[in-house]
Amino acid sequence: MSSKTASTQRWRFLAPGRRLPGSPLAFLLLVVAVAAGGWNTVEGARSRAEAERLGRVMALSERVLSSLKDLETGQRGFVLTGREDYLDPYTAALARIDGELAALDGVTPDRGLRERRRGVIAAETDYAARVVAARRAGGQEAALALIQTGEGKRTMDAVRDVTREVQDRAAGDLRRLAAADAFRTPLLPLVTLAAALAAVGLLARLALVRRRESQRMADLLESVLENAPVGLGFLDRDLNLRHMNRALGNMSERGFGADLGAPIWALLPSLRDALGPKLAAARDSGLVTANVAVAVPAPSAPGGTRHFEASFFPLRRRGRGPEAERADGVGIVMADVTLGKLAERRLVDSEERFRSLTEATSAIVWTTTPDGAFRQAASEWTRFTGQAPAEAAGQGFLAAVHPDDREATRDAWERAVTTRTLYAIEHRLRRQDGVWRHMEGRAVPILEEDGRVREWVGAHADVTARKEAELALEAAKEAAEEANRAKSQFLANMSHELRTPLSAVIGYAEMLQEEMEDLGEESLLADMRKIEANARHLLGLINDVLDLSKIEAERMEVYAEDLDVAETVREVATTVDALVEKKDNSLTLALGDHLGRAHTDATKLRQCLINLLSNAAKFTEGGTITLTAARAHREGGDRLVFTVADTGIGMSEEQQARLFQRFTQADASTTRRFGGTGLGLAITRAFAHMLGGEITVASRLGEGTTFTLDLPALYEERDPAEPAGESLPEAPAAVAARPDPGSNLVLVVDDDPATRDLLARFLRRDGFTVATAPDGRAGLEAARRLRPRVVLLDVTMPRMDGWAVLRALRADPDFGATPVIMVTVLDEQNLAFSLGATDYLHKPVEWGALKEAMERFRPAIHEGPVLVVDDDPDVRERMTTMLTREGWRVASAENGLAGLEAVGVRKPGLILLDLMMPELDGFGFLRALRDRPDWRDIPVVVLTAKDVTAEDRRRLAGRADRILPKAGLGMADLAATLRGLMSPGAGGEAVVEAPDRAVAP
Fold first, then answer.
1. Looking at 8-22, 82-96, 375-389, 776-790, which range is the least confident one?
2. How many angstroms separate the CA atoms of 714 and 599, rounded?
3. How many CB atoms lie under 10 A from the CB of residue 521?
């Protein structure tokens, strides 16, 4: 809590209203006393009025009953005697009853009671009138007959009952009033007296407390004045000091030396001329004079002079009249400002030093107004640029900035002024001799206490020498990078030129081995296998060099895909099993729980693990190699940790320091003993970095080595590179011309005669007809002339490379559906698939992979229906109806699993496939379908509402024959597309035409 807040609360605590109840409570008690007395009076009057009313009710009720009795008596006498004078009481009672009844109703508030009473009285008077009339008309017998009915007795009993009820109710009300009066009469006077006494006592106590608090406040005020940090004093009418607080006494001792009863200038008469007139004006004219500077010689003060500031004001009495207008003296308030004066002096000296420093420094120091405009005055800026002050004023300083830098300077300056943030820029300024100099400028706003900008202060430093050095360094860097790129390109070119003949050596070796086996020349097989093994070893070294050149040129790409971690580790272990056993080593797998799946580049992960295991197998003999895999949960995502530990020769710290350097092994003796190029671990670390991970090593000489590969389980994919060259026009949905469905012709386009010969021999042996072309242009002409079923296409060729041939084929409507398989040493799958390639094979060609790829394009005739796999029942029904009308037999399945079951029951002639489905989607269905050799030739048309991305196309490449969007696709267009893929024949047979696995409509 701040001191101000604490002080405020302390003063509030001392206020009288916070110590005990104040005047509001006393006033409330007085109100209670008056209210109680008034209530007693009002209630007494009301009670008396009610008692009087109840008495009248009882009396008037009795009077009405008496009149009715008189009426009954007169009626009876007249009936017995028949004399009219006996009716006098009867007549008199009738005359009285109405008035008495009206008076009784006036004091009876109960309306129901009034009406009931009038009813029974009216019945009684009516009965009496009828008896009298019967006596007069029919004599005594008639009257007695009416009397003997008992009606008169009943009506009179009712009158008595009502009268008794009224009187009983009135008597009860009187008793309650008496009880209430008995309780109220002593209580309310007592409450009135108690409240009045309490109010008087409280007011008396309050007056006493306020008097004490006033005295305390006066004491506190006196203490505040006495201990105030400023000097306070009172002068009488003769201007002699009558009172000084402690601060003013200290000032007097250190400065002017005045004492009580003497003028303030007693020891310094020179002060009289300066202060006398002002004090007299305050006393005689009531003028207030503030901040009068007083300088007093004082040896103890800094600089030998003590500075004060004094204020004078008149002291008047409270009240009105002449006595109040006349001042009894003068009050004085004085503060010691010696330190403030000293600070002002130091500030002046500091500003003078700053001004001298700016004039002496090589930097240009300048200031502007709060709105960022230069003042119309000479400055370091004008002296450097040669501008006149009027030219630089406002925004004119921009004229000295280089035209190419002027707009950026204006924007940066306006942004800094608007946001009141640091201004920093580098630009060129014209010196007064006309030479452009590179300058670094910075400026900051100087703020007032309220946050307003007082001015901007900035400086410009000449950085021309630094800029020239940076340009020279940049040029040297570009030259070095260009040399590195030239080296990488040379390595890539050399690797390509070496891999091409090696591919032929390996291919011919494999074919010769097959022919030797057929001829029974077992003695030559061992030599051919050695030739193939050495060629593959040399190819592996060249592949490492090529990978290294691609990494250095930043052309190595990552192809992330979903993979099962445990399955991948087991596959790697199987791959290196023979290499491990070569030196009598044993491989142990330690797979952690919950390895799960990962999304990363499976090829590069396998290569990293194979390199580490191969390295361990190379440097371990008769030992144990342990491959450990675990999944770690860390902040930012799961990590996969692979550890390869061996019991081999180990390494020293010096050898570990050189371990990951390219073309370097532990030392020269290691190279001589174990061989190798020293690239494996360097490439492994580069792959680890590309996948977002790291590789570390721990080793002790003679005890073994442990490599740890730490990778993210989810690789963050970068945007796929755009394919080079011109954009590829979309192929039409319908193909204008297609090769003969039964055609077996394969066109091989390659500039290497050995590769052409190997591919042709393999394909002919596998039952295909083969045509060849020596370069891209000849291949394109042969394709247009021969219309092959499949094209095998190399990339690096003279006259026209494979990319240009592929673009031309996909741009031609006649070849939009022709499968094109790229066969090359390059690693450019993404580019190939984006341009429309159907499949991608690396040289040297694995004949098993080529055979598997070609099996999909071998002409085949299937007896089977069209299978519609879609989770939407409406789509399945619509497709079934349309295809049935077109003459096909149709089967359907609601998801991928059901679709695979349907294919297993009866092989379809064609499959219409949706991608987004529950249980098993279209991608999983295609993987499972193509994994079965006997199902690989089934044409598949993907029909989906999903936006197909470049990644989706890459996943579908080589598996789907056509990709069609559901949106806007007419049934006629779909039917035409299907006719191009299969032709319904007699008996429901369908001929599957050449598929197109890359081109989307």
1. 8-22
2. 5
3. 13
